[in-house]
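Same chain as my last thread, 286 residues:
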Amino acid sequence: MGDPMVRCLLRAGYSVTIWNRTHSKAQVLRAAGAQPAFSVAEAVNGADLVISMLEAGPIVAQVLQEALPALPAAALWIDMSSTKQSEAQQFHASLHAAGHAFIDAPVSGGVGGAQAGTLAIMVGASTSDYARVEAILAAMGRPTLVGPSGSGQVAKLCNQLIVGATLTIVAEALLLAQAAGADAAAVRAAIRGGFAESKILDVHGQRMLERNFVAGGQVKSQIKDMHNILAAAKAAHVTLPVTQLVTQRYESLAETYPTADHAAALLALEALNPGQRLGDGPDKLS
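reply #2:
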């Protein structure tokens, strides 16, 4: 995700210094105009604005702590990773205590959206901090201020809740269509354009019919997101029964298909229904 996001910033005319834990990945972007750094401290030295795009909250925390002593006064840190709301709030508190600002701005749209510069960017920030970075975020997609610090992560979790649940329901609908004697591909085509239409039905419904589970979004990432959703729900004192069921379905894939595309929700459903299998092609996993 970071690579195409950097390219969008460069195309928009911004000067970008980059760092990656795997230095060769940063070097690839030198030809595009980015300046690779050999350490976190070198990367943030003199930077008014820092953007992080990392695997999960604990890694963000580690990188932030390494960077903190080298940040210039009144720097603004935008974390575009997907983390827990509580982690984003802690990052905000740590940076604020050191005289800096923090924005959580997770994204949706995948690598394709990052390449096209069309990511949905959900921003948790003060109105003044958001005004400071809106144009920069707009170089990578469509930013929306959704509330104070931590709210961006809440919005991303809402997105992932809908994605995870819809993937599961699309798998159930297609398997039911076939098991009941209908042509599952024709059923998908028939209901498109009606109230059941969605990006999931369009993209992942087709992937399920083709049994194409080559990773875009991975099962292990979906599980992480589902756990973060349930943590946010607990903190907000609400019960999400459907989310609990969807989480269980993805957890059943954790050992066998952790790096498969999250359309592998179909595989979890088929495991509950011995003898039922959508289509007749082989599974594509790599």
